[in-house]
Write a structure and sequence with these properties.
This protein is an alpha/beta fold and about 425 residues long. Helix content is about 35%, strand content about 25%. It has three domains: about 1-65 and about 105-180 and about 295-370, FAD/NAD(P)-binding domain; about 185-290, D-Amino Acid Oxidase, Chain A, domain 2 (2-Layer Sandwich), CATH 3.30.9.90; about 380-435. Strands 3, 4, 5, 6, 11, 12, 13, 14 and 15 form a nine-stranded mixed sheet that branches. Strands 1, 2, 7, 8, 9, 10, 16 and 17 form an eight-stranded mixed sheet that branches. It starts with a strand and ends with a helix.
């Protein structure tokens, strides 16, 4: 049995951020990580929103293992064998700090970040799976690794921060959340495909350290609530799809994730972008989709939840996650430091953590998109019918023929009227604007 001041479960962005702040302040903090090294089991699409990192380590991107900065964004609807897209190419985002948007590989970046926390004095122990909390009455006073009751598997501390990730069984054991639902989790699969920098620059119209973020909807995951993505690393692509688990195994759907990814890569508009590449990595990961209205409790006596374990992912088109995780880790550390003098970490003292969250962009952004997933789930026409209509309208109007444009306009109007209800569409888009995007 060992002791320390603060125990952090999980060396993801939330856990490392918390440990970095605490260690810098002289706190005896131990971070326990299940993987072989920090980042070994972590995955996300590729965009790292780095405003919180820049607060911890100003100009971090100069030395950090950043692949590229995001210079171009591409939003696309895949419809059958066609594509309708919107491109954003901003010169302002090509100047430091590059809109705080970078493309990274978590297996590399998290390892670097963990070393920075070690330099501040944090202790990181990898290959250690925390299986339960240690309780003193109703208060968490430590953690246990493994399944035996051997005292050598126990670490005690004044307070525990749980950044266990999306599949947080510990938060369930602590009674802070209900059992995980397939409706509240997305499964994402990704390949890292090697191509070479020159090939990537030519195919995506990039130069130097410029990067591109491509996101695909509609038939990227046909009939299901999900999306596809391509992010440009320095000499490889991160290519993947994500689907809500309950959608994947719903009525009429029986595809497994790797089949969806293969289908996505074989689409006529995707195939030329990945042609000739060699797969370097294949990974899968769950992503929280709790939403603002279904978040767990964030704390109890001796314990706080951070990052994915607390459900801090904004599942709107913004796809915020890592920045929210880091912010929650920083706020958990600030709460600990505020109470350190009294060594008081009961629920009353840790309520300050929730106050910080309520006054931050984390919960405000989740609140602003609180109905986004529910709207998509209940209005499947947004994923299926409307994209096909948009494609048909555009291709009809821009078809080159000897038919007068006035006739084409009438055809388009009749097409739209015959396929959508304007009243229903207006209500749906109003709902999205109010509680979705």
């Amino acid at each position: 049995m060992a002791e320390c001041e603060v125990i952090i479960v999980g060396a993801g962005p939330a856990g490392i951020s918390c440990g970095y702040v605490l260690a810098k302040a002289g706190v005896d903090v131990v971070i326990l990580e299940r993987g072989r090294f920090a980042g070994s089991k972590n995955m996300f699409g590729g965009i790292f929103f780095a405003d919180q990192m820049n607060k911890l380590i100003p100009d971090f991107y100069i030395d950090a293992p950043v692949e590229r900065f995001v210079a171009k964004k591409h939003y696309s609807l895949l419809i059958n064998d066609s594509e309708v897209s919107l491109n954003i190419d901003s010169e302002e985002h090509k100047k430091p700090p590059y809109n705080h948007s970078y493309i990274v590989r978590r297996s590399v970046f998290d390892k670097w970040f963990a070393e920075k926390a070690k330099e501040q004095g944090a202790t990181i122990i990898c290959g250690t799976a925390v299986t339960d909390f240690v309780w003193d009455g109703n208060k968490v006073v430590g953690v246990k690794a493994g399944t035996s009751d051997d005292p050598e598997n126990v670490l005690t501390g004044d307070v525990v921060v749980c950044g266990e990730g999306a599949n947080s069984m510990l938060s369930e054991k602590a009674g802070l959340r209900n059992r995980l639902s397939m409706r509240a989790r997305c499964i994402s699969v990704k390949e890292v495909i090697q191509l070479g920098k020159d090939v990537i620059d030519e195919r995506f119209g990039l130069t130097a350290r410029e990067g591109a973020a491509y996101e695909y909807f509609a038939d990227a995951t046909p009939g299901m609530l999900g999306d596809g993505f391509i992010y440009t690393n320095m000499d490889s692509l991160s290519v993947g799809v994500g689907v809500v688990i309950s959608e994947m195994y719903g009525a009429g759907n029986s595809a497994c994730p790797n089949e969806l990814l293969d289908r996505f890569k074989s689409h006529p508009c995707i195939r030329p972008l990945v042609k000739g590449g060699k797969t370097l990595e294949y990974s899968a990961h769950m992503i929280p989709m709790d939403g603002y209205k279904n978040l767990p409790r964030f704390y109890t006596d001796g314990l706080m939840l951070v990052g994915d374990a607390a459900g801090f992912v904004n599942n709107s088109i913004c796809h915020e996650g890592v920045n929210m995780a880091m912010a929650s880790g920083i706020m958990a550390a600030e709460t600990i430091l505020e109470n350190r003098g009294r060594r008081r970490y009961d629920a009353g003292a840790l309520r300050q953590y929730e106050r910080r969250l309520n006054n931050s962009f984390v919960l405000e952004n989740m609140k602003s998109s609180r109905d986004f997933i529910d709207i998509l789930r209940t209005h499947k026409e947004l994923l299926n019918d409307y994209p096909h209509l948009i494609k048909d309208v555009i291709t009809t109007y821009f078809e080159v023929s000897d038919v007068p444009k006035s006739s084409l306009k009438r055809d388009v109007i009749r097409m739209v009227r015959g396929r959508i209800s304007f009243v229903k569409a207006a209500r749906t888009f109003a709902a999205i604007l109010k509680g979705g995007i």
